[in-house]
């Protein structure tokens, strides 16, 4: 069974760190197979707003976007996602960012047009297998905020190995009762 730590803390909130919670659950008979963050490691990705979209002069499927990444200027980013549109808030990997798989982002030219970053899909961030388009964020998300903080991607997810005699722990409420 998998569940995030914040669900557990909604029912009981001990003053322990994640490692101590995992240890206490194991000592209570609920074997913690693994505890890992929601998302794989990446850095340099922020919430950005697409301000403008124009067709790429030399490519049918690419678009040249004007993007506000919260640093006080508009960035020009070439994007091939079919769902890119003005007004969307999306993840933006800035130059210097590292995505899962140790993929480094740097300014580059795409078919003759400068691109100063990368707009990201959920698959590029390691969040899901969805690669149909950009990961569209909540319109209330703060432009320039670190994506890991905005989506709480450092939240720990526990995987428990349950035995048949612990059926009361098939839900988070039962696990919280055991922990408390």
Description of the molecule:
With 180 residues, this protein is of the alpha+beta class. The chain has helices at residues 5-11, 18-27, 147-150, 172-179; strands spanning 2-4, 31-37, 43-55, 63-68, 74-79, 89-99, 103-104, 108-110, 113-115, 118-119, 156-161. Strands 3, 4, 5, 6, 7 and 10 form a 6-stranded antiparallel sheet that branches. Strands 1-11-2 form a 3-stranded antiparallel sheet. It has a two-stranded antiparallel sheet with strand order 8-9. Strand 4 and strand 5 form a beta hairpin. The radius of gyration is 21 Å and the shape is elongated.
Which features characterize this protein?
alpha+beta, single chain, three-stranded antiparallel β-sheet, 4 helices
| Helix fraction bin | 10-25%
Derived from helix and strand composition plus strand pairing, the structural class reads: alpha+beta
Oligomer: single chain
H/E element string? EHHEEEEEEEEEHEH
Mean pLDDT: 89
β-sheet strand percentage: 25-35%
Describe the sheet with the most strands: 6 strands, antiparallel
N→C terminal distance: 19 Å
As residue ranges, the low-confidence spans are none
Give me the number of helical elements.
4
How many individual β-strands? Answer: 11
Question: What's the gyration radius in Å?
Answer: 21 Å
What coarse outline follows from CA principal-axis ratios?
elongated
């Amino acid at each position: 069974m998998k569940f995030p730590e914040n669900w557990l803390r909604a029912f009981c909130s001990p003053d322990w760190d994640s490692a101590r919670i995992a240890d206490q659950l194991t000592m209570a008979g609920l074997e913690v197979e693994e505890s890992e963050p929601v998302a794989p490691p990446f850095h340099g990705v922020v919430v950005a707003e697409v301000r403008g979209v124009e067709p790429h002069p030399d490519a049918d499927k690419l678009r040249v976007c004007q993007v506000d990444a919260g640093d006080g200027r508009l960035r020009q980013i070439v994007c091939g996602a079919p769902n890119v549109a003005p007004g969307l808030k999306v993840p933006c990997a800035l130059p210097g960012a590292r995505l899962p798989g140790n993929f480094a982002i740097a300014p580059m030219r795409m078919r003759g047009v400068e691109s100063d970053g990368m707009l990201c899909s959920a698959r590029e961030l390691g969040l899901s297998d969805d690669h149909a388009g950009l990961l569209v964020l909540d319109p209330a998300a703060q432009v320039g905020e670190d994506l890991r903080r905005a989506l709480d991607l450092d939240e720990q997810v526990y995987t428990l190995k349950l035995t048949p005699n612990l059926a009361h722990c098939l839900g988070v409420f039962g696990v919280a009762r055991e922990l408390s």
